[in-house]
Batch of 2 targets.
Target 1
Amino acid sequence: MFMSVSRVARAVMPVVALAVTAPLAAQEAGEDRHAIASPDGRLAVEFWSADGLPRYRVTYDGEDVISASALGLRFEVAGNLDRDLEIAGESRDSHQSTWELPWGERRIVHDVHNELLVSYRHESGDGRGFDIRVRVFDEGLGFRYEVPVPDGEHRAIVDEVTSFAMPQYATAWWTQAADYNRYEYITRTTPLIEVETAHTPFTARLPGDGVHVAIHEAALVDYSGMRLDQQREGVLTAELAPGPDGVAVHKDGSFITPWRTIQVAEEAVGLINSDLILNLNEPNVLGDVSWVEPGKYVGIWWGMHIRTMTWGSGPIHGATTENAIEYIDFAAENGFDGVLVEGWNLGWDGDWFNNGAIFSFTRPYPDFDIEAVAGHARDRGVRLIGHHETSGHLTNYESQMEAAFDLYERLGVTQVKTGYVADAGDLIRIDENGEERREWHYGQYAVNHHIRVLEAAAERHISINTHEPVKDTGLRRTYPNWISREGARGQEFNAWGVPPNPPEHIAMLAFTRMLGGPMDFTPGIFNLTFNGPDSPNRVQTTLAKQLALYVVIYSPIQMAADLPGHYAMNPEAFRFIRDVPTDWEHSIALQGEVGDFVVTARQERGGADWYLGAVTDEEARVLDVPLDFLEAGRSYRAEIYRDGEDAHWHDNPYPVTVETRAVTSGDVLHLALAAGGGVAVRFVAGEAE
Ligand code: NOJ
Ligand code: CA
């Protein structure tokens, strides 16, 4: 997959990278500091030992982004690695390569970074310690622990003391962690000092120059997910989800941790326009993945959320043969690739939330003829999309998943949506002794469970879209069949959430959750007021904004989530959903502020057309967007879907004005977004000059 790789030894490392470490040299006399800068020299990090305490610090243009902060690991039994450590040596490298994403926001990814390895060893000389490997890119850095442990020895990590000290009055955008609803919380805006325990990606804007920072992790494999806990004022400290024995991570022999990542950008959109997380993941291990197919889908789904259908059996069972055939025909007629059917398998009756042990993943309800449905789909050139709701019973699922994927493979199903509906910390596994154990959705066991599922699915050329997942840390690079996931409040919260997603929700997600990777948000609700306009449960956007979501929210698979009948009633707006692709050659976040608005442009992969999506929060907004991303010298027909006259998410969400204009890269598009509104544009490429 690598197109070109060049490893450059220290001797030829760009001089600028060494020169800009100078501001960091404002160090206490005698301290042995080891610094490295980004290729453009603006971002720098240094490591040292402060009287035995391992420390690091990050600066941008010479100003602190992360001030002196702790490093270290603590274990269940003796041998902690958080004090009495000195630096025993270092090595350096730099790297430049480009590589290709089989599907993604862009095709070509550039990986340009400088690397430093700093070895901390215990002062006793017993050889114990860790190496910190840091890679510094222009738009952020990642560091990980590489811990040498003699073969055959076990380590039980109870605590990672990695900290991130930031100005207390930075503005923070965050969701609460360690709470029952996993990652599904409304994003809060507070001074940093008011952050409690937060998930990552965690985004902040520093006082002063307003530099934006996002803390996350990359390549979360065989480890426990990192939450950020504010123990001291202004200091966020890694908190690893514990296993049922109180140990966060068990390791045998030498090990590495996930990368702890710090993105830094002058403008908020700089956080989005970064491939840091992907670059810190390992290359594809699945080989040929041409069977992983991006695309659009519809499904028997929203009806259950607005309660016109049920997952379980009964008079309004959604997953009937008849309903499925109707959806398949609708999909075929409108150019969709897949049809999701939820509630097809035995186990939904009764309290399915708490009955994970009784789900069958191979036996359909009697009113769902899975062979006939899959056959009809194949005949119509559409795929049935599989569904496995586990209700968080990991062991029940693992015991059946091979057979379940075999069945799907035989039926021509190439994508499966999985679900882990259970309170956080309440996933169930049955251990070797038959005892029931409870796990976090982001603990080491669940992290490894997802990899097992991906591998079993990959053997049958099946891709996985995980709901109630572990957060995305860029593993789609290594396992390109991890095609999407949830991991935030999706559209479903508009059906029954208390409260539903607020108008600023998407402008928040774009700068927080979405920094991790694709989200199966399931956009495209046209009947926004399904319970009546005065019900608290409704979609708090305009209709035009629902269209914009297909461009703003990246996912290689996008659902048209509403009931087919609602699309039939509005064919003009529906046309945008039919047209918009889900796989891209280029993507650029053009403008935006966290929680306020965002404007994104993307070029279709394998095509010349561009698409633009703009969304705002509860404020109406006028935006001037230069079209300089279009190919110079080419004319385009802009098909604009914008909020109509007097549109407003609350009082008047439906008007959409569709208009066409000829534009070139020299034009500036003047976009008027209603309160809670948005704009979607397709730029149809004319002949190149
Ligand atoms: C939660 C998922 O997010 C949703 O999409 C699905 O319909 C239900 N679980 C049932 O599996
Ligand atoms: Ca969910």
Note: Residues 1-27 have pLDDT under 50 and may be disordered.
Target 2
Amino acid sequence: MRKYIIAGNWKMNLNLEQGYGLVTEISGMMQDEIHSNVELVVIPPFIHLHGVQTLLKDSPVKTGAQNCHHKTGGAYTGEISPTMLADMKIDYVIIGHSERRQYFGETNALLAEKINAALDAGLTPIYCFGETLEEREAGQELNVNFQQVKEGLFHLSEEQFSKMVLAYEPVWAIGTGKTATSEQAQEIHSFIRSKISEKYGNALAEEISILYGGSMKPGNASELLSCKDIDGGLIGGAALESRSFIDIAKAVV
Ligand code: PEP
């Protein structure tokens, strides 16, 4: 049975006090309300990670980083290495979020290096992929998503790939209030799973959690999360408020 993951990407939001308040509420609420097959992950900005991690040390809620560098250390001013994150007992790292691709010029080739470094450090990468509106309107969504997954991940061994989490995030649905319909999302998830199966075999493809991200909220979570190949959500805006984050997680039944 695949694990469901509900991960909250805070992006560049919340000060320390707000962040501490949010995780304290989430951790308190989740005990009775969430299905045992759901893992909750909070993904704050780097400077809050240590404090959040300390607050959550006796909680089942996991932590993640929003990015990491592809080297383990050295003269890279302003960067954070995956080994530093692993040393702090951070569990997950987002690699390839569309905002990193779009605003920071991150290419599939660079992301492949980040994936290697994150896996070597013992982190679980959440690899994001997704098409733009123009690409969807041009009927290119299957090609574009496959290309991102292939170039970012298909150099991995079976053992490495088994440690991955993927997240389909159509760029046109992120932070826009527009959500992919469950049919649109399921089509991409099942297509990508079939490509993983061709490359790594069906057993491994069936084990990999593929999350959906893009304006997921309590009102649309049940429909999306009931799709056969959608194994959780990567949540932006709705993860900044404990009630909506927990209500999305409760939609997994
Ligand atoms: C995201 O940042 O990955 C995301 C899906 O954001 P939002 O939920 O706000 O669309």
Note: The chain has one domain: 4-250.
